[in-house]
Amino acid sequence: MPLATDTALQVRFRIRDQLRYDAEQIHGDGTASAFKLKQGRPFSVLSGTGGTGVTASIAVAAGWSATGTTAVEHVLGRVIFGGAISANSAILMDYQWSVFSDEEIGWFTAVGGSVVGAALEAVRTLESDAARLARWGSPDGSTYDPTQTFANLAAMKAQLLAEKMGGEEGPAGSMESWSENQSEYL
Fold first, then answer.
1. Confidence check: pLDDT of 114 > 80
2. Which terminal residue of the chain has fewer beta carbons within 10 Å of its beta carbon, N or C?
3. What is d(CA 27, CA 86) in angstroms, rounded to the nearest whole number?
4. 118 and 92 in one domain?
5. Is 0.85 surpassed by the pTM of this model?
């Protein structure tokens, strides 16, 4: 288990969705004030909690100077500035991202009731996404076959179900009362 005491981080650890760091350089064109980063929907979200928000630095003669963003759309991966960014101005954006948002992890925890239950809910969500994938090939010879994705998710799901049913999350027992059975052991 991770050393983190935060339930969301423990769930992320179980499903291997830790926060990942990325940085990218964007260039102003003199008219745009909003920019789409590589990360964001439909495949990921920017992290917006725990001091891991998006930071922006604009290129100046001596290096990079911090600049503020007016808004960040974490789900879409858009950064919005108060005005247009000058033509040929470079801005260095650095941020953390993950597949599931903090809200989604919170939902999984509420529905699942525990770290293992939340991880199981996340795997079920991934299974429904994987069900929409199809085998494909392109003229250049590139191919994709989602068969292994299903096998990996099934293995992860089986492990989580076994752990959940195995009683590692709390006391397990039958409908009989413990005290009623103690007379047999005296």
1. yes
2. C
3. 8
4. no
5. no
